[in-house]
Design a protein that fits this description.
heterodimer; A: 351 residues; mainly alpha; ABC transporter involved in vitamin B12 uptake, BtuC; two-stranded antiparallel ribbon; globular; B: 260 residues; alpha/beta; Rossmann fold; 4-stranded antiparallel beta sheet; 26% strand
């Protein structure tokens, strides 16, 4: 039975997440041995004997508490947001090649960030509000605005048309791209570099307030998305068929769009643009356990967390002591996969 | 306990699609809509399914306007097979049938039994573990037939929702002869259980064999309504389909035959 297999697989992923996160906390420009990690954790909990080398334990304690832990946890949280939102978007669009950027949230966020970087003025760059820079705040607003526009334009008296939403999403993305072009045109060299780095997405600004913000989004998604699983399954048959099965299709659409906008908007705000997690992970999971959203959503969420935690570890190690933007690594891994997906579907269409 | 359309009309920007349709689907009776392409058969079904709201007139289910029913209550009474369903995701055949249990809260055990039984009825048990996306057109259609059957497999326990109706839009269009015959048998069995059935069919002989009532639809209007013998006359077929036909009798069943 596929359901039993899917349950086991999801459990296995969950069990793999913890070692992945511990491993990720150990690597970086400074490698810290697992024994040190245990010593530090024991020290925090007030357990165990006082370590012999107090100073180095303190140092490593600071590395863990101020840098590694928030970063690894943030990576996991962002991975959960992106991958679970990707899974429900593919269900809503009834297309395994859909991803959250289709409703304009990423390009809107990018334009919002660009606006703040170029016109925000020098004073705004240094200051921050609850751990978020104003650039992140601008990104969040831009993303929300774009989704709102896409949703409004695709909704008429007869309901929200998903194909129209796709087209409007493309148009809004193009518009946001044009705005970004204007911002780049008037930007100076320093601003340009900041803009392009932001668009690559990185977790290097991780801190505890950001973890808290992303954590709120994840809690919301974990409670709200699984409730839509059966409706999403029915929706895969088509909107009319879902209505015949008693699903309130308009309400499901609204909720999914709202939750995706929050999940992806907050991810983009805390980590910039990290591509392909939302596209590739749910697709992979669908190949492993089938399209049933009751299992697809949780397994995608966990696998997204693992992928981003691992990718971010590579990002910190590959060119140490410098680091690559995480978004570059996910894209490097994602693009070949995407091409493979396209050609595979092409063959299916030809058959 | 019936599904009734009264004085139903539908027009888009002053172009009429349906005009003054009156029909009733009664428990245990099979009603079949026939008519040329573009006569409005599918549009009429969509009105009855609450997918399209008519411009005037009304559709009632058990005496209550169909729009006023909670969507889940409607779904446990009224099951609809559209002409085409597109499903691009690799569910197994039994998972597709299981989707029919979405409006029910009968628990996994009963649901699995219903799904297995429904698959058996449509001669699809051997397909249950296969991926839907890899099935042939006829096999897919059988899976969807099993799905709409599984949706109304038992009368619901809720007092007000025990009526059951089945609407099938060209259920036999991609079936071979054996499965066409099987489908007729399934439909008749459903009717015997008290399910009210509304069909759209192009094969007049199949329609004549199973139907209690034929509705001949022409340009969005009911041209004739009655038993197969009353409706399938040489003149009516010539007028509506513009085809010269002969009317005969089946040598064994004695049912009406339309030969062209």
């Amino acid at each position: 039975m596929r359901e039993t297999k899917a349950r086991k697989f999801t459990l296995m992923l969950l069990l793999a997440l913890l070692p992945a996160m511990i491993g990720a906390a150990l690597v970086g420009p400074v490698f810290i041995s697992p024994i040190k990690l245990i010593e530090v954790l024991a020290g925090w909990l007030g357990l165990g004997q006082p370590a012999l080398d107090q100073i180095s334990v303190q140092q490593e304690g600071v590395i863990f508490s101020a840098i590694r832990f928030p970063r690894v946890i943030l990576a996991a949280l962002v991975g959960i947001c992106l991958a679970s939102c990707g899974a429900v978007m593919q269900g809503l669009f009834r297309n395994p090649l859909a991803d959250p950027s289709l409703i304009g949230v990423s390009s809107g966020a990018s334009a919002g960030a660009g606006l703040v970087i170029v016109f925000g003025g020098a004073w705004i760059h240094g200051s921050s509000w609850f751990g978020l820079t104003f650039v992140a705040f601008g990104a969040c607003m831009g993303g929300a605005l774009a989704v709102l526009l896409v949703y409004r334009l695709a909704t008429s008296s007869t309901g929200t048309s998903v194909p129209t939403m796709l087209l409007v999403g493309i148009a809004i993305s193009a518009l946001a791209g044009a705005l970004n072009g204007i911002f780049s045109f008037v930007a100076d060299n320093e601003m340009l570099r900041r803009m392009s780095l932001w668009q690559m997405g990185s977790l290097d600004a991780a801190n505890w307030p950001r973890v808290a913000i992303a954590g709120c989004a994840v809690v919301l998604l974990i409670f709200a998305l699984p409730k839509q699983s059966r409706a999403l399954n029915a929706l895969l048959l088509g909107e009319s068929e879902a209505r015949y099965l008693g699903v309130d299709v308009e309400r499901v659409k609204q909720r999914i769009i709202f939750l995706t906008a929050i999940g992806v908007g907050i991810s983009v705000a805390v980590a910039g643009m990290i591509s392909f997690v939302g596209l590739v992970v749910p697709h992979l999971m669908r190949m492993m356990i089938g399209p049933d959203h009751r299992y697809l959503i949780p397994s995608s969420a966990i696998a997204g967390a693992i992928l981003l935690v691992v990718a971010d570890s590579f990002a910190r190690v590959v060119v140490a002591p410098a680091e690559l933007p995480t978004g570059i690594l996910t894209a490097l891994l994602g693009v070949p996969f995407f091409f493979w997906l396209l050609t595979k579907n092409h063959h299916r269409a030809m058959r | 306990m019936s599904l009734i359309a009264s004085r139903l009309s539908l027009s888009y920007s002053d172009i009429p699609f349906l005009r003054d349709i009156n029909l009733s689907v009664l428990p245990g009776k099979i009603t079949t809509i026939v008519g040329p392409n573009g006569a409005g058969k599918t549009t009429l079904l969509q009105c009855l399914a609450n997918e399209i709201s008519p411009t005037s007139g009304s559709v009632t289910l058990n005496g209550r306007d169909i729009r006023d029913w909670p969507s889940v209550d409607r779904a446990i009474m009224l099951s609809i097979l559209p002409q085409h369903s597109f499903l691009d995701f690799p569910f197994t055949a039994e998972e597709v049938v299981m989707l029919a249990r979405t409006p029910h809260a009968t628990g996994a055990n009963i649901d699995q039994k219903v799904v297995a039984d429904a698959l058996k009825v449509v001669d699809g048990s051997y397909l249950s573990k296969r991926l839907y996306t890899e099935l042939s057109g006829g096999e897919k259609q059988r899976i969807h037939l099993a799905r709409v059957l599984a949706q109304i497999w038992h009368p619901h326990t809720k007092e007000s929702c025990q009526a059951r109706f089945l609407i099938l839009d060209e259920p036999t269009s991609s079936f071979d002869l054996a499965h066409q015959k099987l489908t007729l048998k399934i439909i008749k069995n459903c009717a015997e259980e008290g399910i009210g059935i509304l069909l759209v069919m192009h094969d007049l002989n199949l329609a004549a064999e199973c139907s209690d009532q034929i509705i001949l639809l022409e340009c969005g209007e009911i041209a004739m309504i009655g038993t197969p013998e009353e409706v399938f006359t040489v003149e009516a077929i010539n007028k509506v389909f513009n085809v010269k036909a002969n009317i005969g009798q089946h040598p064994e069943t004695g049912k009406l035959l339309v030969i062209i």
